[in-house]
Amino acid sequence: MDNQNINATADQLHKEARQLGQSGKYDLAIAKLQEAIKIQPDWAYPTYDLAFTYLLKGDFESALKFYKRTDELAPKGFFTTKAALYTLEGEQSGKFPKGLYLAYLQIEWTDNKEQKLEIAKTLTDKVPDFAPAWKELSNLLNGDAERLKAIEQGLLKNPDADTAGMLKINKAILLNNAGKSEEAKNLLGNLIFSADATTATVEMAKFTLKSIS
């Protein structure tokens, strides 16, 4: 949605909700977000933040409900919605352990690279079918060969569209580094024209293709 079309009251409520959420006042944040959604139900951002706030409260069922709604509002991707859905649906079905998505987010929340690497390794060891952890691990490893192994593992795990896109982009970069520029370009070209690709990964693939051409 174009920012110019966002209702001013809904926008203010959303900003207030984010401040409340950052202060740990989740119930107050939820109330503000629900008000914003009532005013502008077609705006994905407050629905996305509502899902995330429920996640932080440990209400995974409600989080999944509103991530699904976010995905309906923004089917070509909205921040981490695709990965959240992939993980929470897996938790709900029993494929993944409960609380996996919150554990995965610890990688993003820490600034220490060694801690990030430790979390990613732990997740890939304990939940080897969890594709997003392989994506993170591939970004943290040293050496192109090890990174490529992690990428290939992630691609084998039936990843969500965003994770798959980033894995393919990173694979293309490594292929180009290895002198396989045509293979890299083909991989990026296929991603750009894929009906399943998210807007963010298509734009990143275009940027990467320009940089290696």
UniProtKB/TrEMBL annotation:
Q: Which SUPFAM superfamilies match?
A: TPR-like
Q: What is the lineage of its organism?
A: Bacteria, Pseudomonadati, Bacteroidota, Flavobacteriia, Flavobacteriales
Which species is the source of this protein?
A: Chryseobacterium hagamense
Which top-rank group of organisms is this from? Bacteria
Q: What is the designated name of this protein? A: Uncharacterized protein
Show the coiled coil region(s): none
SMART domains for the chain: TPR (SM00028)
Repeat (TPR) residue spans along the chain: 44-77
Which keywords label this protein?
A: TPR repeat
